[in-house]
């Protein structure tokens, strides 16, 4: 039985193979000269019929423990004619590009994958070499439905990406136009004063009859274990909110979130302005300025932070920016140890012991002076 490899790019405890396993794609760099002697550049003949799916007799997958920065969202089998997709994850780039179970990825940007003359050329390795900085890469795919080869551009998502999936249901009788737009949002609802802090959302134009499936892509680095999150939705048609969720659905996006259901009910309200953020959020930011910088935030600063929040960022990131700023560092004498002692007191609520201070300094030095990054990571690990 040929092993099945799931390209979820999560860490694997050991390289031992099983029938199905989660593969960590580290994209180790093969020697270019050796590669050139094993395969051509690349398919010299077009397929006139379906390729053979007989696996190579040496069907042993490559394994690399280093983390990858991109996700495709498929399970595969390596064969002599490419990489057969044995599963396609819902809401991930492979599905969004139109790939389905049974399709075969023949090459990545002109470079063959799978087994070539008995040697394995890993799909993950080739993606890592060919993908651009925006996650875009081109595949040559054998479409199992129409039995044809096609070039397929795919945009991958970051390794830290995840998704919250579910469906929107509605028992109301309403008539909507083709201009209707359904928005499903994942919001940070940690504090009552936070009204519209969006962590991620999916906008569905001209939605069909319910139930309507959705998948909200999120970046795990923007989530905090001590924060509360919820999903809600609303439908806008001709400048009015016709339907909105009866209640936000609590979720824990850092855990394995099961499929959720969001129920829509009728409402009679106008569309909220894009800048409809609770005044309490800006008050909190100004309070941080007073507490840490001993001054009020300027109107320009508050406007900039409001735009930052509107883009779906967390207020906690703003706090990390202030605590990592040169202004705060200078106010504490522009010296490392007083700064870190004050930071420890602020974040953990007490003075560090001598041993804790030494450990804190060692951690700080690993960031090479990137104070905001250091503060943000400490805050994420602090209950």
Tally of individual helices: 10
* Named CATH architecture of the largest domain: Sandwich
Strand composition percent? 25-35%
Number of strands: 20
CATH topology group of the largest domain: Immunoglobulin-like
InterPro entries: Lipoprotein_YbaY-like, PBS_linker_sf, PDZ, PDZ_sf, Pilotin
Pfam families: PDZ_2, YscW
Keywords: Signal
Domain PDZ: 72-118
Topology, element by element:
Elements: E1 4-6, E2 20-22, H1 32-38, E3 70-71, E4 74-79, E5 82-88, H2 93-96, E6 104-108, E7 111-112, E8 114-116, E9 119-121, H3 123-130, E10 136-143, E11 148-155, E12 157-158, E13 161-170, E14 181-188, E15 198-205, E16 212-219, E17 229-237, E18 240-245, E19 249-251, E20 260-270, H4 279-293, H5 299-310, H6 315-324, H7 326-331, H8 336-348, H9 354-365, H10 371-381
Parallel strand pairs: 1-2, 13-20
Antiparallel strand pairs: 1-4, 3-12, 4-5, 5-6, 6-7, 6-10, 8-9, 10-11, 13-16, 14-15, 14-17, 17-18, 17-19, 18-20
InterPro entries: Lipoprotein_YbaY-like, PBS_linker_sf, PDZ, PDZ_sf, Pilotin
Signal peptide: 1-18
Protein name: PDZ domain-containing protein
Written description of the protein model:
The chain is α+β, with helices and mostly antiparallel strands and 383 residues long. It folds into three domains: 89 residues, PDZ domain (Pdz3 Domain); 106 residues, Immunoglobulin-like (Sandwich), CATH 2.60.40; 103 residues, serine acetyltransferase, domain 1. Strands 1, 2, 4, 5, 6, 7, 10 and 11 form an eight-stranded mixed β-sheet that branches. Strands 13, 14, 15, 16, 17, 18, 19 and 20 form an eight-stranded mixed β-sheet that branches. Strands 3-12 form a two-stranded antiparallel sheet. α4 runs parallel beside α6 and α6 packs across α10. The longest helix is centred in the last third of the chain and has 15 residues. The relative contact order is 0.09. The N terminus is likely disordered.
């Amino acid at each position: 039985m040929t092993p099945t490899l799931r390209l979820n790019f999560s860490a694997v405890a050991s390289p031992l193979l099983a029938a199905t396993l989660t593969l960590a794609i580290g994209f180790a760099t093969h020697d270019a000269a050796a590669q050139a002697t094993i395969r051509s550049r690349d398919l010299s003949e077009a397929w006139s019929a379906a390729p053979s799916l007989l696996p190579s007799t040496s069907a042993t997958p490559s394994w690399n423990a280093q983390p990858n920065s991109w996700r495709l969202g498929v399970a595969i089998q390596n064969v002599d004619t490419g990489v057969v997709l044995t599963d396609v994850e819902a809401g991930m780039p492979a599905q969004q590009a139109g790939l389905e179970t049974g399709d075969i990825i023949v090459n990545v940007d002109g470079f063959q994958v799978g087994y070539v003359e008995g040697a394995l050329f890993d799909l993950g390795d080739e993606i890592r070499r060919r993908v651009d900085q925006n996650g875009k890469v081109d595949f040559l795919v054998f479409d199992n439905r129409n039995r044809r080869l096609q070039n397929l551009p795919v945009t991958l998502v970051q390794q830290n990406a995840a998704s919250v999936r579910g469906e929107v249901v509605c028992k109301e009788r309403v008539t909507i136009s083709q201009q209707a737009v359904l928005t499903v949002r994942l919001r940070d609802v940690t504090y009552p004063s936070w009204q519209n802090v969006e962590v991620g959302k999916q906008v569905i134009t001209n939605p069909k009859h319910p139930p309507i499936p959705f998948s909200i892509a999120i970046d795990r680095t923007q989530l905090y274990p001590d924060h509360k999150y919820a999903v809600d939705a609303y439908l806008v048609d001709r400048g009015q909110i016709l339907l909105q969720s009866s209640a936000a659905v609590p979720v824990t996006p850092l855990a394995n979130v099961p499929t959720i259901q969001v129920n829509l009910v009728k409402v009679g309200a106008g569309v909220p302005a894009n800048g409809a953020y609770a005044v309490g959020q800006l008050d909190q930011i100004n309070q941080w300025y007073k507490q840490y910088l001993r001054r009020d935030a300027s109107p320009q600063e508050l406007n900039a932070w409001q735009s930052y929040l509107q883009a779906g960022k967390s207020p906690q990131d703003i706090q990390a920016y202030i605590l990592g700023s040169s202004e705060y560092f200078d106010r504490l004498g522009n010296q490392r140890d007083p700064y870190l002692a004050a930071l420890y007191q602020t974040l953990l609520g007490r003075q560090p012991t001598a041993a804790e201070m030494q450990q804190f300094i060692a951690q700080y030095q690993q960031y090479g002076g990137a104070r905001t990054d250091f503060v943000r990571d400490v805050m994420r690990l602090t209950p």
